[in-house]
Amino acid sequence: MEGSEPTPEALQRKLYFLLEQLQDMARELPPKYQMRVPIELLSGLANCLLNDTIFEIVKGLMEIQHVTEKHLFQQRLQIINNHTMEIQEMMKNTVPEQQEVQKTNLLRRHKEELKQTDMKLVLQLDQKVSDQQDTLEKAGVPGFFVTSKPIEVKVQMYLLDFILRLSKMDIPQ
Asked: Which InterPro entries does this chain map to (predicted)?
């Protein structure tokens, strides 16, 4: 029966299982988030998870995010490394009387550069979140839409966590 369509009864069992698991997970949330995850949302989510496509999309988005975070972290480390080398170079090529002043100036500039870099990195991460929200909304996953409101983003993070946890379970077929 490889590749055959599941029976309506099998789909019903799977739906009940998914909904039950989602309700259990939602009960673990802090109260202020529980009220933002109504049964209608969980039911819609369970329905859209009947097909494994959403699990694959979420896993793909997670992999992309990990690669992006690693890349951004490497960029930050590179800047810190460049700063360290710049200070060492300055110490070698500056007369001792001027080293302290030079070092103070360099450290001030480095601090500002790092702050600017961190702001750029945060903007890139925010853009990644927005891209993920857009992808999941277009895939028809309930609860996902592009937003930067912290409480809504947090609810979406919980929903993603639910999906990832379900993806690791043995779901009745």
From this structure: Gonadal
Q: How far is residue 75 from each of residues 49, 86, 118, measured CA to CA in Å? A: 37, 17, 10
Q: Which residues of 16-36 are buried (b: 16+ CB within 10 A; e: fewer)?
A: ebbbebbeebbeebeeeeeeb
Residue 82 within any structural domain of the chain: no
- Please say if the pLDDT value at position 125 is more than 50: yes
Q: In this structure, is residue 67 part of a structural domain?
A: yes
As a whole number of angstroms, the distance between CA 35 and CA 51 comes to 27
pLDDT tens digits, one per residue of 4-52: 678 889 899 999 999 999 999 999 999 999 999 999 999 999 999 998 9
Residue 30 lies inside a defined structural domain of this protein: yes
- The CA-based diameter of the chain, rounded to the nearest angstrom, is 84
Tell whether 144 is covered by a domain: yes
Residue type at 14 in one-letter notation? K
Region 59-78: mean pLDDT is 95
Could you list the residue range(s) of the whole structural domain that residue 147 is in?
Answer: 8-74+115-167
Token pair 């277009």 in the structure block, residue:
138
What is the number of domains present in the chain?
A: 1
